[in-house]
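Action item from last meeting closed. Structure (218 res):
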């Protein structure tokens, strides 16, 4: 995999947090801040679950907070309020956080490929952030996120022939890797901003620091 030829891929799929934006820590803190109304211990348990399950949507994580951590029925209004608070916490930060270097150079290097974002982040929020930051034009295949999970998004876009041919998923979590494998795609693990505590065996031979390192491949 270290001798990967990027131009062989018809489709490149990017996770957002930890791949295109340096936003993992921002969201981790936001999960704690939103959940701390229930106390430190539940908030910390949510953070632990979030870090261990990178790539899974905020919808699933707040459902886990309510149903498993707090052991209470999931009330739609309460869930909506948590999601709204979380969105307010992260949106401003996403508009100002560090963007991966060399996106333009990588786009030029793979100009015949279709690019998509497939993220656990909220879809409408992602589209607004990338538009405001002038980055949406790189992703000619579209920008997709929750409430649909990554497996559902990938299947839908394959069924629509928006994802075609040999495809590569660029992610920073075990969940990203598993979603790529289930969709019969190659995978690259980008480690610089990942919250994965140590390199998983599955990623050996598939690890690069970031998009800048990928751009150096001849």
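Sequence:
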């Amino acid at each position: 995999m270290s001798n990967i030829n990027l131009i062989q891929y018809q489709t490149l799929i990017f996770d957002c947090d930890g791949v295109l934006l340096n936003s993992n820590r921002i969201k981790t803190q936001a999960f704690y801040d939103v959940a701390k109304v229930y106390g430190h211990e539940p908030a910390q348990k949510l953070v632990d679950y979030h870090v261990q399950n990178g790539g899974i949507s905020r919808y699933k994580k707040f459902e886990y907070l309510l149903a498993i951590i707090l052991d209470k029925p999931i009330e739609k209004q309460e869930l909506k309020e948590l999601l709204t608070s979380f969105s307010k916490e992260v949106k401003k930060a996403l508009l100002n956080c560090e963007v991966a270097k060399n996106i333009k150079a990588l786009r030029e290097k793979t100009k015949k490929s279709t690019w998509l974002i497939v993220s656990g982040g909220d879809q409408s929020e992602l589209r607004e952030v990338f538009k405001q930051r002038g980055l949406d034009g790189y992703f000619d295949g579209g920008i997709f996120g929750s409430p649909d999970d990554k497996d559902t998004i990938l299947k839908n876009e394959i069924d629509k022939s928006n994802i075609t041919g040999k495809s590569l998923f660029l992610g920073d979590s075990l969940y990203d890797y598993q979603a790529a494998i289930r969709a019969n795609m190659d995978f690259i693990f980008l480690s610089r901003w990942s919250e994965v505590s140590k390199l998983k065996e599955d990623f050996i031979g598939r690890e690069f620091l970031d998009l800048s390192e990928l751009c150096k491949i001849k």
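Note appended to the action item: The longest helix spans residues 76-94.
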